[in-house]
Amino acid sequence: MNRFLTGLLMFALTVLPGTIASGQSNAVGTLVQSSAPPQSTTVESDNSESLRQIAELEAEARSSEHGQADRNRRIAIYVHLGNLYANAGMYLKAEGAMHRAIPLLKNGPQDELALELGQLGVLHVQMKNIDQAHRDEMQALRVREAIGDPIGIALTWNDIAGLYDEEHKFRKALDYGQKAYAALANRTELEPDDRIAVRQTLGYALAATRHCDVGIPILKDALELSISSFGPEIPKLGYAEYVLGFGYWHCGEWGRAADWLERGTTRMKADFGWNRSLYLNAMRQYARFLRESGQLEAAVNAEAVVNQADAVVDARTLTGMTEGFRSASVK
After folding, report:
1. What's residue 272's pLDDT?
2. Which of 7, 78, 116, 247 could form a disulfide with 207 if both were Cys (CB 3.0 to 4.6 A apart)?
3. Which residues contact 96 (CB under 8 A, 6 or more apart)?
4. Taking the CA of residue 145 as centre, how many other CA atoms within 13 Å lie in the half-sphere pointing to its CB?
5. 125 vs 301: CA distance, rounded Å
6. What values do phi and psi take at 217, rounded to 5?
7. CB 271, CB 278: distance < 8 Å
8. Dihedral in degrees, nearest 10, Cα atoms 2, 243, 295, 254
């Protein structure tokens, strides 16, 4: 499935209240990334290419509003724009584009409608609108059920489990996560990202509920599947390393948590777009880990990475490159 995210777990990584003791700096490492944002030719190139595509699609969107494109083309424009905006951190504009696509899809292919509703749900989690995200995902689930799509149903179960993780409703997360895992974990015909996601969602919920003897092996399995699917050196592997570290954190294994959290966030930092957003979410939690383990200077450096990046994203969202699309009356 062509999903701009493979699930909702990446936004659910928040420490349970009262579960992490402070003052354990003797058990953890001290490495942290520089506060300067990564600058690379690849990142800048990806950034420029995304903005170029956005500008071209905005121009086509304005033309399509005057009847110069058929319905299918308009759907494609708004779906693609929604993903590009989300990748660039332009969340309000992403929401507007998705709201344009969904009504056009209601009388079209229902699997595409369900996918777009799921995309919108993930976006609303990133926008901290959890109630609306629940409504989006439940609507996507109803569409999947109506068309009898067992794989899509299970993927939506996984997304709903991620939402419950976000709300610290871990028992409910386990209910949905276990169903998704049972349906998808061994479906080798699925994209690896989906098989990895169900392992991460369930493993996280298990670790959060102190079922560490089961949860940690599942998170290790997710990491091993990431390596076998994508290789040992790509930036996206960092997320699997980070989630494993987070599982160890929940389970009180501070030394292992420190190793995997540092390793994962270091690998993730080179990505642009939505993966960049994952990196910043990871760095927020890594900073919290460092603070609670007594490494205040390292925590300040990690927080500086996030604050600097957030300022750039906020400026782009509010005053950025795409004012022209607003004139198309996206709501």
Report:
1. 53
2. 247
3. 330, 331
4. 8
5. 26
6. -60, -35
7. yes
8. 180
The confidence score (pLDDT) of residue 123 equals 92
Cα-Cα end-to-end distance for the chain: 27
Q: Report pLDDT digits (tens) over 88-113.
A: 888 999 999 999 999 999 999 999 99
DSSP characters over 43-103: HHHHHHHHHHHHHHHHHHHHHHTTT-S-HHHHHHHHHHHHHHHHHTT-HHHHHHHHHHHHH
Distance from C-alpha of 247 to C-alpha of 262, rounded to nearest angstrom: 14
For the record, the structure tokens of 133 come out as 């995200």
Structure confidence at residue 325 (pLDDT): 39
Which tens digits make up the pLDDT trace of 278-326? 788 889 999 999 999 989 999 999 899 888 876 665 554 443 333 333 3
The pair of three-digit structure tokens given for residue 200, joined into one six-digit string: 């991460």
- Contacts for 103 with CB less than 8 Å, ≥ 6 apart: none
Q: How confident is the model at residue 274 (pLDDT cuts 50, 70, 90)?
A: low
What DSSP character marks residue 11? G
Dihedral (CA of 251, 236, 310, 319) sign: negative
Q: Retrieve residue 130's tokens.
A: 């959890």
Distance CA 284, CA 261 (A): 11
In three-state secondary structure terms, 205 is helix
DSSP string, 213-238: HHHHHHHHHHHHHHHHHH-SS-TTHH
